[in-house]
Amino acid sequence: MNLKDKIIVITGGASGIGAAMARRFAAEGAKHVICADRDLVGAQSVADDIGGTAIQTDVSLEADITSLIESVEKDIGPIDLFVSNAGIIMEGGAEVADDDWQRIWDINVLAHIRAARTLVPEMLARGGGYILSTASAAGLLAQIGSAPYSVTKHAAVSFAEWLAITHGDDGLKVSVLCPQGVATSMTADIDTSTVAKDGMLSAEAVAQITLDAIEEERFLIMPHPQVADYIKQKGSDPERWITGMQRWQRMLNEQAS
Ligand code: NAD
C-alpha cells in the first residue's frame, strides 16, 4: 500500500510513536492525517504542523471511537488506514486491582476491537482497507514486571491475527507493530533499568519501519533492540524481525507448491 493521497487516522497521535507516524505519513504524501488522542493540545500541535486534523478521543470509550470514525468518514472521507496505537503501560502482577486491569484492558485491547467493530464492515463493503495496531514485543513474550501490559498486548496481537485470518482474503490488510524499547514519554516514566538504553529506537525510526512495512504489506512488524542495527541497515535478514503470519503464510505457500 502506498500512502500517497490516503486518509489516515492515528490514535495516540499526540506524542511518541503515534506523533512520529503522523509526521512521517504526512511527509509521504498522505491526503489527510487525523490525530486522535485524549490529549487534544498535543494532538492539535502535531496536526497543525502537518496540515492535519486533531480530534479529542478517549479510546477507552466506545462512543468516542464510533464518533471518531463516523465524523472522519462524514467530514473528510473514507478511512484508508486506521492506526490503533494509543496505549498505556502498567506495572505489577496478579495483585493489581480489577479496576486497573479493566482500565488497561479497555485501552490496550477493547479499543482495537471496538474500532474494528465499526470499521471492518464498512471497509469490506467498499472493497478493503488497512488496519494497523500497535501492540508490543511484550505481546510476544511477557515483559518482566508488567503482567497487565504483557497480557493486554498478547491479546492485541491475537486480535490482529484473528482479523487477518478472518478477513485477509476479503481485501482487509492488517498489521501489528511489536516494538520494544522506543524512546518516548512511555519509557521515560518507567523503570528502564532492565532495558539497554543504547538499544532504544527513536519514535521516528519506528515510524519509518512502519511505513516500509505498510508499503510491503507485512503482517507482524517487530523493531527490537537486538535487531536495531539490522533495521537500520534494512534488507539483510527479514526472518529475524518479521515473524508470525508471514512465516506461516510462506510455509503454507511452500507446502502448496
Ligand atoms: P506515548 O505515551 O508517547 O504515547 C501514547 C499516546 O496515547 C499519548 O499521546 C496518550 O495521550 C495516548 N493515550 C493514552 N491513553 C489514551 C486513551 N485512553 N485515549 C486516547 N489516547 C490515549 O507512548 P508511545 O511509546 O508512543 O506508545 C504508543 C504505543 O506504542 C502504545 O500502544 C505502546 O504500548 C506501544 N509501545 C511502546 C513501546 C515503547 O518502548 N515506547 C514499546 C512497545 C509498544
TrEMBL record:
Alphabetical list of Gene3D superfamilies matching this protein: NAD(P)-binding Rossmann-like Domain (3.40.50.720)
InterPro entries: NAD(P)-bd_dom_sf, Sc_DH/Rdtase_CS, SDR_fam
Keywords: Oxidoreductase
PROSITE patterns registered for this protein in UniProt: ADH_SHORT (PS00061)
UniProt superkingdom: Bacteria
Family statement: Belongs to the short-chain dehydrogenases/reductases (SDR) family.
Record-given protein name: SDR family oxidoreductase
Organism name: Parasphingorhabdus litoris
